[in-house]
## 1
Amino acid sequence: MTNALSLEGVHTHVGPYHILHGVDLHVPAGQVTMLLGRNGAGKTSTLRTVMGLWPASAGVLRFKGQAITAMTTPEIARLGIAYVPETMGIFSELTVRDHLVLGARAARRAEDLDRTRLDWLFGLFPALHKFWLHPAGKLSGGQKQMLAIARALIAPCELLLVDEPSKGLAPAMVMKLIEAFTELKRQRCTVLMVEQNLAMAKALGDRVAVMDNGRIVHTGAMAELADDEVLQQRLLGLSLGVAA
Amino acid sequence: MTDSPLPTGSLPTHPGEVALPGARFDARPLWLLAALVLLAFPLIGNGASWLTLTAAGLAMGLIVFIMASGLTLVFGLMDVLNFGHGVFIAAGAFVGTSVLAGMAGWVGSASALQNLGAVALAMLAAMAVAAALGAAFERVIVRPVYGQHLKQILITMGGMTVGEELIKLIWGPQQLPMPMPEALRGAVLVPWFGGEAAAVEKYRLFAVVLGLAVFAGLLWLLNRTKLGLLVRAGVQDREMVEALGYRVRRLFVGVFVAGSALAGLGGVLWGLYQQSVVPQIGAQLNTLLFIVIIMGGLGSTLGCFVGALAVGLMANYTGFLAPKLALFSNIGLMVAVLLWRPQGLYPVR
């Protein structure tokens, strides 16, 4: 199994703070890897380091074998890594249409967007069609999340980084997201997803990595962790409920 | 078409029937402008003078807008406070003066075409020099202090002082006359009620037309092109635009250079408006520019436009009504606006 992304001994400093303490993480191609852990464990920082937003101070990051440690954020994105940040990164003044045009680097106007892909995204997230010309700032939290994901997917990507897509969303919305990601999974899309919602992690994850204090403390199959309540208690301090 | 969940036809071309609260354009700052113009009328009392002053105010406001538009985008995009922006104005004004002086034949000619040709050449030369200066300024002075506001303020102010001294070295420390071409001299008489006629200087009309053209061009660029989309997105969230694979740094250099060129153009227009140029022109206008962009909402082009018009009108009205208050009036206006909207007229974030 080849790794799309691998991190070896990655350290990250932000200002005076030492946030990542030697992260070793491998994201296999064509699978969904869940990154779990308590608040402050370093999950978001790991994604930001991959994107070059907080450059690693030590260690090596590779994408499909190529070292990306010293690359700038735009260079990394151009390799085919799409990113949905925890804050969603929605431009409140811009319309839904503008977001998708921005997501597709080759498109100059909405008419240049790949219609097949766009229709697929409209099918996943009908609200985006409904509010096509509305400023994104007026969308609900769930709709913004869908827009952020659609923006990441409108152009073909090799790796999708998603930071807590279910954060703050109503259960019905979370179900919709799970549906959309299940569809992505069927397409063998490589995903690295940070999640706190364990039902979502269980439904989507092939692999799992658990972080604590800026390190990876456990890696394995998601199903394995989902079935082992003792392990869940030890790693996450809570339980998924094995029966479900 | 908006209610079909799986559209296959063309994309929607209008916002659809779903009304979202507050999605409408915020027109209240424009009412502020209208109120300013209407309020001045009874105070001035004389319709003809009011019209003359309003035309002068609009001309001044539009020139200030041309100068300030680059500054506000530079701040919005990269958080750079450039207190040296005035040096591009000064460079543009002096280059323009030299070109016009060198083309005295065309400037004094009876042919309006030659007159306007001389002005156009002066503007192009001013923009080219200001753009080149802007590119060097960005590379040498601004780039080492990204993300450090205090250092930006200190070093860009220093850069402007150096620029001002260089201008004195090349053109001398004295005030230089800015020759006004024949075709733009004099005034048009606009008939007013009661037989009175208001005199509106031709050059002011010219400045208004040019200023509106620049504003329209900027709006088109910002709202109708991908480049503009990137600038607007970058002003709101630079990091996200970079994470989408766009080189915001390069975009910023482009905006900085274009903004410098516009400042150079504004310098020529301002010199012609005052009919003379002094080496301190940059420092004099800097304060005004910052009043305008703070009032408008840092980073907002529309806010900068409304702010510039308000400042231009205010300066001319108070200059007529209470000359001693002229300098204070713009600061007073800014204070009032910020009490009303602490983030400026059109906040961007």
## 2
Amino acid sequence: MSTYAVLVEVTLRPDVADPQGATIERSLPALGFGEVAGVRVGKAIRFTVDAADEPAARARVEELCRRFLTNPVIEDATINLGPGS
Amino acid sequence: MKVGVVVFPGSNCEHDVVEAIALLGGDAQLVWHGDRALGDVDAVVLPGGFAHGDYLRPGAIARFSPVMEAVVEFANAGGPVVGICNGFQVLTEAGLLPGALQKNRRLKFICTTVEVRVETTESTLTRRATAGSVLRLPINHFEGNYTCSPDVLAELRAEDRIVLRYLDNPNGSVDDIAGICSAGRNVCGLMPHPERACDTILGSADGVPLLGSLLGARVVVRKGRLTASPASGA
């Protein structure tokens, strides 16, 4: 068993309107950041998971994302997984 | 008619639902979310509020409450289930209704009265209402913007499962959807609060045809005030 550190980023799917991201993006030119585009707002969830190896850990986290951490109708998850501390 | 009203930690409309059902001649009882059984009930209401603080997503944690297994079983057996506001969100998270409710289009919490049109009377929520009639009902939500895939929307339309539509869409819901029903037509979800519109002293009695439908009650107009009488043998 090893411990893996996990960061799950939950974002709205590309085809779902993201009013928070759009509002932030609209405010950027006034601040002098007119070159910034494609703003999407999501949430980050950090945790650790114990598993036999990295593929096993990733499989468990994928299942967790599908069943609970995201609503697949409107959200995607990006899983970042590395050695735990 | 016994109606179980599920109470999650953070529900806040359960007593309004109990009052409204009692007013319409039904017998409502609260069911704690931690209970594994619904008891001897003929219908279930998931009331509004902020179950489990809406943490993660509205309804995301509530759907795993112990009572939800019994609710799913009851619904799959054809039992009438209505989810109001947060209850609608719980029903979509639980997979009893398709689609999802996301943040309102303009990121505003909306607390106002809206007009909705009854689109079909083929549902547990509208069978005693009049198709095409317009109801004035309160809404009170941040995440009421109904969304679903184009395939699901086509299916909802083809099967006449859009139960209520907003006349003036307040939140960005696809196709002006305010309420839908399941393929079996026994599970209904809606964002407006019919329980807060069951007496003219509250500004509207237009919720009566909806909750009256759930109770199987005949809806009658008496001296300008809508009331419902329990159905006799119906």
